[in-house]
Design goal:
- The chain is of the alpha+beta class and 482 residues long.
- The protein folds into 2 domains: 6-310, Electron Transport, Fmn-binding Protein, Chain A (Pnp Oxidase, Chain A), CATH 2.30.110; 340-452, UbiD C-terminal domain-like (3-Layer(aba) Sandwich).
- The chain has 14 helices and 25 strands.
- The strands form 6 sheets. Strands 5, 6, 7, 8, 9, 10, 11, 14 and 19 form a 9-stranded antiparallel beta sheet that branches. It has a 5-stranded mixed beta sheet with strand order 21-22-23-25-24, sandwiched between helices. Strands 1-2-3-20 form a 4-stranded mixed beta sheet.
- It is globular and about 75 Å long.
């Protein structure tokens, strides 16, 4: 199901009793975070604050803050459905043979939804044009007491690669310095930073447009670990099964989602000195340290006549961003399995906050297979940040954390089965001695073979026979115990 815009999604949440509207006035400085944090930790509803102190705009938070709402946001019963669709689409063996070609036509027809549509006219996001922009009118949150100020936390930052002309959309927080400047939090390893470095060679001003409040599929697409040649708007169209409508920015040639609630336009002067940004209470549950980043100068703000400001908070999990991470886990698993067929399943535990822990089960076929998969994963895109990779056998579900812990605690010889690997780390990692660089750990908790040097007999798991399990299951039901 494709939503026309964010407000269409809000209506859907309300219809399913997954939204609470709050009319009492609330303060964007700390108070909204305290409320939203309590609701998030109790797996409560999305919140629409209709009376935010100091701003004329209502504020939406925690919109995708449960598995149910994340599925609803992407229009599926399960996030695995999207992964299966991607896997089916890419599996070219299904297109071989005349009959298979005809059978695959419905899947191929879906390609028509991938390509965005550029409107010849202004979009709904440009119903109101503010030539004298003032960010203080937006209900921007100060989330945590130690934050350096107010931060826009759910921005879709759109830039154009000056060499290829291809647009990029990413999610980078924006610290509001004053009414028309913010920080631009481009990490060292992010695509936005790479494009910024290209502009630095050219000099001058780098155009930037920021969309706030889109169909949730577009918002998710901005966070997805896509290859550089895949346009996020195209991926959003695939998720929506409907093309994304784009409109040209007022001040630049950047195309933005036409149905966004707000568009913030401006530039980054690549010759300007960097400015101190942060600290900020981050998704690790700790404050990320202050550092120097480019400055975003706002030249124009456009919005709908009655827009809704979207935001999120991050901190000690579970938080709303955890479910975006779980969506990535399920959606991209089939692609991972195509590269590494030995992989059975994978789990990014919420407590690992995206990059700090990955559990993977494999069909082990040869000595050292567990170590091979660790090094393979460390070589893929954002997986290079993963501080801990735990490998278990195919009969262990990575989602069953108790069983995984049992295998790790009992199946490893620390000298042989623990791997330390130096490499890149996420910019938010605070535990390493150096920024962006340090040690990752792999734990091979698979059953060890004699060919791996394990000369003693490996004991079998203690487990009841299937016949006895079946008998007890039947009697269990007879007593009405479920």
């Amino acid at each position: 199901m494709a939503y026309k815009d964010l407000q269409d999604f809000i209506k859907r949440l309300e219809e399913k009793n997954l939204l609470s509207k709050i009319q009492t006035q609330v303060d964007p400085e700390l108070e909204i975070t305290e409320i939203a944090d309590r609701i998030s930790k109790s797996f409560g509803p999305a919140l629409l604050f209709e009376n935010v102190k100091g701003s004329p705009y209502p504020l939406l938070i925690n919109a995708m803050g449960t598995y149910e709402r994340m599925n609803l946001a992407l229009g599926v019963d399960s996030m695995d459905d999207i992964g299966k669709d991607i896997g089916d689409f890419i599996d070219m063996s299904k297109y071989l043979g005349l009959m298979n070609k005809f059978k695959s036509l419905p899947k191929l027809a879906r390609m028509a939804s991938v390509f965005p549509i550029k409107l010849p006219t202004r979009g709904a996001c440009q119903e109101v044009i503010e030539e004298n922009p003032d960010l203080s009118t937006l209900p921007v949150l100060k989330c945590w007491p130690g934050d350096a100020g107010r931060f826009i936390t759910l921005p879709l930052v759109v830039t154009i690669d000056p060499e290829t002309g291809i647009q990029n959309m990413g999610m980078y927080r924006l610290q509001v310095y004053d009414k028309n400047t913010t920080g631009m939090h481009w990490h060292l390893h992010k695509d936005g930073r790479e494009i910024y470095e290209k502009y630095k060679k050219l000099g001058g001003k780098m155009p930037v447009s920021v969309a706030l409040g889109c169909d949730p599929a577009i918002t998710y697409a901005a966070t997805a670990p896509l290859p550089k040649m895949i346009d996020e708007m195209m991926f959003a169209g695939f998720l929506r099964k409907l093309p994304v409508k784009l409109t040209k920015s007022i001040k630049s040639d950047i195309y933005v989602p036409a149905e966004a609630e707000f568009i913030i336009e401006g530039y980054v002067d690549v010759t300007e000195p960097l400015k101190l940004e942060g600290p900020f209470g981050d998704h690790t549950g700790y404050y990320s340290l202050a550092d120097y980043y480019p400055v975003f100068h706002v030249t124009c703000i456009t919005h709908k006549k009655k827009p809704v400001y979207p935001t999120t908070i991050v901190g000690k999990p579970p938080m709303e961003d955890c479910y975006l991470g779980k969506a990535t886990e399920r959606i991209f698993l089939p692609l991972l399995k195509m590269q590494y067929p030995e992989i059975i399943d994978i789990n990014f535990p919420l407590e690992g906050v995206f990059h700090n822990c990955v559990i993977v089960s494999i069909k082990k076929r040869y000595p050292g297979h567990g170590k091979k998969i660790m090094n393979s994963l460390w070589g893929i895109g954002q997986m290079m940040y993963t501080k801990m990779i735990i490998v278990v056998d195919e009969n262990v579900s990575p989602q069953d954390l108790s069983t995984v812990a049992w295998k790790v605690f009992n199946n490893i010889d620390a000298k042989e089965d623990v791997v330390l690997s130096q490499g890149p780390l996420d910019a938010l990692d605070h535990a390493s001695n150096l920024p962006h660089y340090g040690y990752r750990m792999g734990i091979d908790a698979t059953k060890k073979w004699s060919s791996e040097g394990h000369t003693r007999p490996w004991p079998d798991d203690i487990e009841m026979t299937s016949e006895i399990k079946t008998i007890v299951d039947r009697r269990w039901k007879e007593y009405g115990i479920e």
